[in-house]
Amino acid sequence: MGTDTETKRKQSAVKEKAPLRPVESPMDICLGCGTCSAGCAMTGVDGFDPRKIVRKVLMGRDAELVGSKLPWICTMCGKCEHACPMGINIVNMIRTLRGMVDRDKVPGMIQKGVELCLETGNNLGLPAEDFTFIIEDVAAEMAEEPGFEGFTVPIDKKGANLLHTLHNKLVNTQNEDLVHWWKIFHMAGEDFTIPSENWEGVNWGLFSGDDESMKIVVGRIVEHMDRLEIKNLMYPE
Amino acid sequence: MATRSGLLKWYPEFFDKYGAFTVFDLLVDYIKSGRIKLDKSRFPMRATYHDPCNYGRKSEEKFGHGYYDEARFVLDNCLEDWVELFPTRANDFCCGGGGGALLTPYQDARVHYARRKMEQIKRTGAELLVLPCHSCHGQIKAVKETYGMPDLEVKYLWEVVAEALVIE
Asked: Are B85 and B49 in contact (CB under 8 A)?
């Protein structure tokens, strides 16, 4: 008594007695305004239309969406939900639909990458010795450029300041793009390291709607930090 | 995006033990602290910048901060003449390569998706497009010829920094 201020929340009989709104999921509050569809570059392509997808979910017509290519031609760019006047999380809905597809029916390369990453530590299925060879080869070439003499890539360096992971395409076909960060690190005097295994910097469970694999791949980052006693993480992507 | 949201969701204790930085945090820190020096004259041509969805509006929604200003600070330190796309920041158009689109069999849809993005870029008259995302990089490079811009140079933000480095 006497300690209430104007900003302190008080009990409200009205709030207690008023019925809860019958909102089971965010889709239930869709106004059908079509702002999402108007802003989406994919609307009208192969029957894609975010407003209709939200409606279908609202009506429980999941099966029509799960078996279709619609969740996969969406780029999950989030423009729809950024503009949505009701704040409906449309990207999460699309990702959930992706996750409901049988894993052997996930289109294209995504699932293969996920499985290879779980098995081998990278989406390419590249053995550790091949990885080390590529890294050392590219680093040696960089060390021939003026200003970068003596440069080497510290692999599995204990106590390093910064953990650096790699996008698989840089290790695969775009080796020339490996050196940009290395050059910056060299000039900045950054004490970085790259892990020799589980070096994959992307996590395609994000795309395939697969939380289980996503968690394992994120967990490997934590393992590196613990095992190598690294101080800071450079977010991979 | 995947790693940061995964750490927050499944390994929140990570942040008690370790620091974590985005590519922008590192670049801005290296420049501001003087650990790297940059020479703008390496890039005399007109350039423009693409805000990727994941670092822009999606980071804003998920982490409470969109990385817009950081990239622009870096560009100001590397480029003589760069101009904004319109619309930009949180309202920027997706390039069409997000969500794993480059990995699906629906390639015609992906190429078609890029039409607004490419029109945006064309209107700036830029010869160089800078971006900080591997998916956007792959997508724009793959579609630029289709949209009549075979000579458009596409570079990562950190590639521009690396090439502007003053070698000491």
From this structure: yes
